[in-house]
């Protein structure tokens, strides 16, 4: 096997397919109740700054309150614009102030986020629906990417809310006072998805969803499974039964820390930073009083699209966190996060594009950085890496206060030509990657085996890294290469690159094809639960992939609930992991599974 890449890179995947902010150290005190958010007197920085904190959230952050007129008309207007704008430049964040709303159906298109502004989802109740469907794509939901719902309570009109999404569409911190349908109208194809910190009082019906990951939530029931349904820390989850039905269930999540979110305290916008949980189970807001810290917006540089990278770096240097308002940000230099507890929070799928081959964002080997809610789009000049967490050789212990990467998505091609050798490199120990989709595009503009070349998706060099909800697809070589010790992955979804021209293009020395998930030969401890890899070699269906997973054969390297699938017979796998597991065959799209390895 070739030596592990240590440099950066990028990629994207998935469509056509397949498929039958800084300063937390000085933040407010721990919140054990809504009333204990930090006092303003402790929030004000004492040193002068050249750049101001706080400010206007911009024209694409739209805030409603219960007295706002014509809310439905505004929601419909944005949806018409965004419904099929898969690679467009529009970006929107829709916020609802605490209160009760009636008779709404918020249909969400591309690059649209909807969220409540309370500390608890139950502070903001919509008697109505937040809907994702697939009418724009003839009932096929496999391209329903890049949209989100957070921090709301829903009382669905029919008793069931429809959320028919695929990758990069998180459903976080939601309370559905009814049931949740994850399939499009007509039960067409779907390839999701991710739920975290949510309570669904009724039943979750995935129906046609190929795979799904649910973390630290409470559900009234789960209807069915197709290929790979994974649960960790979920009250009401079905019991472990992989592969029949294919449920992989962990009683708790080893470590988790929920995503930062915007909220209101009176008339003041603040950003809440949930605290870390170990052995987590159920929602973090169960008593309505989440635990964590709250920062005023004055501790953030509120960025608008068009601001130069030098200004963003100046804000970071001056001790401000970054709040990226919706839009596209072109970078001619790397954004550098050097201070512990910095927060970089995007709203409405704010998008970073490195224009001249730089790395988009680089984090030092420091405690507690929180990256959340933005998209990195590779530029036309090859970047060695797109996102780096810690420098090469990072070794500090961050177990008490890890860096978290949440709803940070990476894309190479699709919106236009893009290249990157490696998309995401994780060097810092104890990093938590909680829901990412790293995608080398298989459709859109600027797509081709060499046109949007991206060899490696995610490379993990740091020890003790945890991934919860890892979606990585279509890279020219390894999608995931894990070199650190004691790594853990709970849920992995992958497709190999569609567009390989021939067997020679993917030949890995003596091995047919690069594994989707490769654990370094020197690694002595690693564990994974609920991992799936699919192949759809539609350019050359004769290509054979030896295995989906490759790992050293030793007792400390363990896997649970593995599967590989040939989609319609477009390419085949000979094994599941190493030389173990039955080959796929024919056009039946039936998974080959391994319950545990070794």
From TrEMBL:
Positions of the UniProt region annotated as Disordered: 37-57
Low complexity: compositionally biased ranges: 37-50
CDD domains linked: GH55_SacteLam55A-like
Gene3D superfamilies the UniProt entry points to: Single-stranded right-handed beta-helix, Pectin lyase-like (2.160.20.10)
InterPro entries given in the database record: Pectin_lyas_fold, Pectin_lyase_fold/virulence, SACTE_4363, TAT_signal
Domain of life from the UniProt record: Bacteria
Protein name: Putative secreted protein
